[in-house]
Amino acid sequence: MRRRFPVSSLVLVLLAFAVAAREGPPVPKLPPPGASTYKRPVVVGWPDGLSPKAPPGFEVTRFADGFDSGRWLYVLPNGDVLVAQARTERMDGFPPEVLEALARQGAFGPSANNILLLRRTTAGLERRLFLDGLHQPFGMLLLDGWFYVANTDSLWRYRYRRGATRLDGPGEKLLDLPAGEEANPWNNHWTRNLAASPDGRYIYITVGSATDANANGMEPPNRAAIWRMPAGGGPVEIFASGLRNPVGLAFEPATGALWATVNERDTLGEDLPPDYLTEVVAGGFYGWPWVYFGRYADPVQAFRDPAGVQRAQAIARVPDLPLGAHSVPLGLLFHPGKGFPPRYAGGAFVARRAGVGRSRFHGPDVLYLPFRNGRPTGEIEVFLSGFVADEDRAEVHGRAVGLALLPDGSLLVSDDGANLIWQVRWVGS
């Protein structure tokens, strides 16, 4: 029996926002808004023999290449690697020359709309079409014999048999997701990521905002949020809100707390606001669109809705760790320690794709963020670098997006600019 739960079933309990009011870290000192910069990374690819740079003792190799905007990764229990292939398909209102330039870079145009399976065999790396006929797929999840995939506009699940190289059975649509509304004709922030709670009872779904900062006042109330639903379907609730574009999702192993990477708004200057990593608490409200980093008023909203700004300043939770403005943090995982030196056990890795709002890029790269007792220490280490080819010419070799772990503990990094996957292994003593 097909079970579908429409968006109208969402439980929008705004009172729950008060749960996280004035909790979290102190409000950081940020500069005032300033002039904005537009500098789009131009992908030039990786020359033969060149690869990203990792700390001494690590080896970086090409795991696979030749993808069609392979953005997101998921590793099945048997070690098969799944690659979701999708890109931005609509950008209504943008100048033709901009769209042509983006299309040449592979950042805009028709999507493959499928998921590939990669399997290592004695003969090499096999590549199979695992699932197709999708609509901008992104988040993937295997739970209790079901494979879940988040399209931009819907959540589906399919029966999975261990070792299967293709899913041929009929899928079950569980949930409609907002996409391409009147306020968002080109489907801004189209990615939908998934994570299962440690006990397997719930599935968490990221839904980014439709607009940059809701300047037109038409933002749907169920976006810029993380949703939660019972595994297998059921009533859906807004777990946390005020998150402009949450993408990476992972549970911190020591505490079982949910953490997310979040992309903040544009047009406030080169250093505002910082994108961030934060714990996501039940009922937490993180400020968007009225404020950023807990207390700082968005200038547009201060003019348009000053009362809303005051309310938001009273209850918004301060994010835990700024990761640099316009850095576009996406992939997130906590490393269990297997196959890596002990100092990495329990820490977080974050892939930054680098955005368009700075004269000097923040990223592309992969960061390592040490954690202690379930909290970030505040240290930020660049773990994987070398993506920038020529800063002055805005040229990058590729762009880091998704992260995943192989059974041996080695780290996979998807590069949707160069359409390949990097593998990072510890080979030191």
Share in β-strands? 35-45%
CATH topology: Neuraminidase
Q: How confident overall, as mean pLDDT?
A: 92
Query: Judging by the overall fold, what is the CATH architecture?
Result: 6 Propeller
- Biggest β-sheet description: 4 strands, antiparallel
Low-confidence stretches: 1-22
Radius of gyration: 20 Å
Number of strands: 31
Label the overall shape.
Answer: globular
CATH class: Mainly Beta
Instruction: Work out the helix count.
Output: 3
Could you say which structural class the secondary elements and strand pairing correspond to?
mainly beta
Descriptive keywords:
four-stranded antiparallel sheet; single chain; 36% strand; Neuraminidase; mainly beta
Write a structural description.
This protein has 429 residues and is mainly beta. It has one domain: 6 Propeller (Neuraminidase). The chain contains three helices and 31 strands. The protein has helices spanning 96-104, 299-304, 306-315, and strands spanning 42-43, 58-65, 70-75, 81-85, 114-121, 124-131, 140-143, 146-150, 154-159, 172-176, 194-196, 202-207, 225-230, 237-241, 245-251, 258-263, 274-280, 291-292, 296-297, 321-325, 329-334, 348-352, 365-369, 371-372, 375-376, 381-384, 388-390, 395-396, 400-405, 411-415, 420-426. It has a four-stranded antiparallel sheet, with no helix packed on it. β27 (388-390) and β28 form a beta hairpin. The protein is globular and about 65 Å long.
